[in-house]
Amino acid sequence: MTNEEQSGVAVLVVDDAGERRVRLALGDTVLTTLQDANVAVGSVCGGNMSCGTCHVYIELPGVDCERVRSPEETALLEDSRHFRRDRSRLACQVEVTAALAAARIVVAPDE
Ligand code: FES
């Protein structure tokens, strides 16, 4: 692992403030690292997978989010009118890995 990989991965992020590249800490959840970077993403339940307010779209070429979500995560996301089967995730359920360097993370609209 290189020093750059150890310190994090630069990911394209989109929220109400616009699109920018944000460095996310490897091994943490996408939710906590986005919050550390002042990205406007909700977390009413504090990362306990019960509120759905941390809804993001993860756009990663060749990756269908439906294949990696747990049934519980999908059930919570399906309650959202902004649910997109192929790219919706709960940011509190996604670990930051080097693979996210090729991703674009979009904060889903509020309900
Ligand atoms: S923070 Fe509540 S479901 Fe992720």
Automatic annotation (TrEMBL):
Pfam families with a match to the protein in the record: Fer2
InterPro entries with a match to the protein in the record: 2Fe-2S_ferredoxin-like_sf, 2Fe-2S_ferredoxin-type, Adrenodoxin-like, Beta-grasp_dom_sf
Cofactors demanded by this protein: [2Fe-2S] cluster
Domain of life: Bacteria
2Fe-2S ferredoxin-type domain mapped to chain residues: 9-111
CDD domains: fer2 (cd00207)
Keywords: 2Fe-2S, Iron, Iron-sulfur, Metal-binding
Keyword Metal-binding applies: yes
Family assignment from sequence similarity: Belongs to the adrenodoxin/putidaredoxin family.
Protein's name in the database: 2Fe-2S iron-sulfur cluster-binding protein
Species per Swiss-Prot/TrEMBL record: Steroidobacter flavus
